[in-house]
Amino acid sequence: MTPVRPTLPVTPPPSVVPGTETHWHSSWGFEVETSLYSEKGQRVVVLSHGAPAAPGVVPLVRIHSACLTSEVFGSTRCDCREQLDEAMRRIGAEGAGLLLYFLDHEGRGIGLEAKLQAYALQDDGHDTTEANHLLGHPADARGFSAAAHVLSELGIRHVRLLTNNPAKIAVLEDAGIQVDRVPAWVKAYRHAQGYLHHKRTVMAHLK
Predict the structure, then answer these.
(1) What are the extents of the domains in the chain?
(2) 109 with 72: CB under 8 angstroms?
């Protein structure tokens, strides 16, 4: 009779998997430690300045979605580049903080090709939400759970979150992280004003 092998418990994988860590001096004028986390195909670059997880510190945190068109090519259709610059400037001034940069959130999660298609539809008179829907995408396809998991992995349970997006606040609070919101409105180019108005009035972004 063949003996029955016992079933061993399977250890679940961690929510986020940390990758390579390194550091550099940034063009914003301060040193950052850099690491890459991944969760279910979502890659998050974490830029850390100072000692954001030190006892008694409530770090300034920015959850930021990659935007190739503005941050690399200088498009003025949105305020993403200005948001990134302001976040890094403020983190440097604070002396301690974190930027969680979501590499796979281009176009609010629909990808670069679909984002450009949505831009073409906007050129024809549709707003950003209508354009996404016409392409078969939700208005916002992003998920931010990896941000909560990264902060928990780092032992951070209380943050000052630089954001206007209530979804980012909710995902951290749902994970038991205390959030003090810091408004993130910046001065943007006139070409982005319609988009910013839409985010406030239709997508419920905070003032």
Answers:
(1) 17-105+142-201
(2) no
pLDDT tens across 45-80, in order?
999 999 999 999 999 999 999 999 999 999 999 989
> Average of pLDDT values for 162-185?
95
Catalytic residues: 140, 142
Fold observed for domain 17-105+142-201? Rossmann fold (3.40.50)
**123-143 per-position pLDDT tens digit:** 999 999 999 999 999 999 999
**Phi, psi angles (nearest 5°) of residue 29:** 100, 20
> Is residue 135 within 8 Å of 118, Cβ to Cβ?
yes
What is the rounded distance in angstroms from the CA atom of residue 183 to the CA atom of residue 90? 12
SS3 92: helix
**Helices 145-153 and 166-174 meet at what angle, rounded to 10?**
50
